[in-house]
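Protein 1 of 2
SEQ + STRUCT:
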Amino acid sequence: MFAATAQASDAIDVGTRLEPIVDDALIEKLDGASLRLHPPTPREVVIRFDRPWEGRFSGTVAVVKDAGKYLAYYRGLPKSSKEGGETVICCATSDDGVHWTKPNLGLVEIQGTKENNVIIAKSRESGGFAPFIDTRPGTPADQRFKALGGISSFDAPEGECGLYAFASPDGIHWRLLSDERVITREKGEKRHAFDSPNVSFWSERDGCYVCYFRLWVENMRWIGRTTSQDFINWTPYQAMTGDGRPLQHLYTNQFVPYLRAPHIFIGFPTRFMKNRRVLGLDQMEAMGTPKNYLKDCTDILLISTRGGNVLTRTFLEAFIRPGLDPHNWTSRANYAARGIFQTSPEELSIYVKHNTGYPTSYLRRYTLRPDGFASVYAPFAGGEMTTKPLRFSGDRLTINFSTSAAGSVRVELQDAAGRPLPGFALDDCPEIIGDRIERTVAWKNGSDLGALSGKPIRLRFVLKDADVFAFRFLRD
């Protein structure tokens, strides 16, 4: 049993929102159960960076969906900036998120022709360009798309680097909102680079714009955060607070409000393992590995945040591993794109850039079930998860779950003190067996929870060879 008084008054209001189990924010106790990471399934290669203006250092991919059409923005960079390479910003399009084309936009002349998919060229201000569709109420039509782009501290003196604000009516034709930097790094401030995707968006949860970018904390690559009401004037940045776990180099963040639960931001940062060489020098030389890519390796994590500067790494295990291809085992080879999309009723799609630094560089689609990033899991021997006190709206409980043929899920409703509620005890809940994205939980007397709406309750999940990915209260 739990102490009732404080627990009841501190009940978390979940309303009718979906709660994917990507962290332990709502969990009071696990007994024989654990949180389990579910890596996505690699699918087809969707874009190869094979045009003359793209090349082996293409990257910083951001994908958005606008009225049924997907747009992928990415940096084209045939040779590194140290070798004199010049960055261009390219755009590819798709009607389904699977089959992509590079339209001839006719905007920018490259190598004597405008037959290309370049939207911005030779702009020092466009580093880490990561567009989004502005959902702020009252946004002018000619600013429906926005982005921040930067001059990194590696490309400019200390007093010149910073981020500039861009806007567009259609995602293709862009202009600067201000000739001045809107986020700056001045002399004497903490070092931050602006050379990774400078992720920004309107946060309905926070009622402001947020920007996440790379900085340094204790000589480690980390994530900074700043906010704005107008996209021009930004608060002093802060480093995101850790989760009590050792700092690791996070090269990117790629945060996005999860489309099915936008109060939770989910990110796929590249974890940079400095001086952790996997391949032999002879093998890397034969592969044509860039000299500054010889010493390190990378993979991709799953991270989340529920607000403010708090960063949660529920899992330190890789969400996406480098895999069998040796070209993905050299420095800076693997980067997730920004964006999570539901490409079918039973499928989410994300995108990952591989082979960075090689002529074979490409973007691959990965898939997972809706809400399927992680789960609470119990083996055949069984296990339980009990939530903190919750307040909900609605009259029924749904779960996203999967069992084996021999497995099961049962749910008990408790009061704030942990006492089973009459009619909703574990013995009142028949075994739930199968695999569903949304299944209404029913007890012997039915599924109606209307009498409990607004009252503090706990959920006790009892699992046997089963996963629960998410739960949600709904009103019919």
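Protein 2 of 2
SEQ + STRUCT:
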Amino acid sequence: MKTEKHDAIILSNSDEKAVLKQFVEQLKSAPLPDDELLPNLGLFLTSKNLSRILFFYEIYKKIIHTHGIVVEFGVRWGQTLSIMSALRGVFEPFNRHRKIVGFDTFEGFRGMSEKDGELCKCKDGSFSVAHGYEDYLGKVLYMQEQLNPMSHLKRYEIVKGDIRETLPEYFKKHPETIISLAVLDFDIYAPTKVALEAIKPYLCKGSILVFDELCDDIFPGETIALKEVLGLNNVRIQRLPMTSRVSYLKIE
């Protein structure tokens, strides 16, 4: 399965890009036998990629004693959902209430506006993935669950569509929802604001919100949405030393 276009914004210099390209070729041509490929994925972890895993490791530890589900807004390839599933298997494999839910159009950005600035050169449809990718991702998450206890219970859900329609529908279907962790990675203003406004009644003291592009001049819309919905003066925005971009706040 291949996508015709990707829109990843890479800030590496030309030398780093060349090495990364070689690294990808090493991954694709790895001589490891099939039964040793997954146990040795660490071979291809760069410090940048490892730092993101470590970030979510620390974040997950912060929600263990907070009841509720994990939601991600802006799934794209689904790496964060998969990391969360693995961390649940590590820290609380028998917590049947720790459902993991991802929302995305899987068709790229939708709702670009002037509040998103001009630096990213993005447009509606940017950051799309391969057609039908949500089905592929669903199989990955299913296999993640099959390798952990309570595999007979489905504890993940992928919700495809426009967040303005899918999120109210989800809450109507699941009025029991409490959100312990929300990862906001829509990047742009409109869907981020919709998500923040919609989840407010489902947050509790101790809930954590993670943001991928706060204080980022390439994606100003995410910060504007947070400012309008929660107010910067009302929250403590924190970061961890291993990552430069990802930040979080705790509802207090």
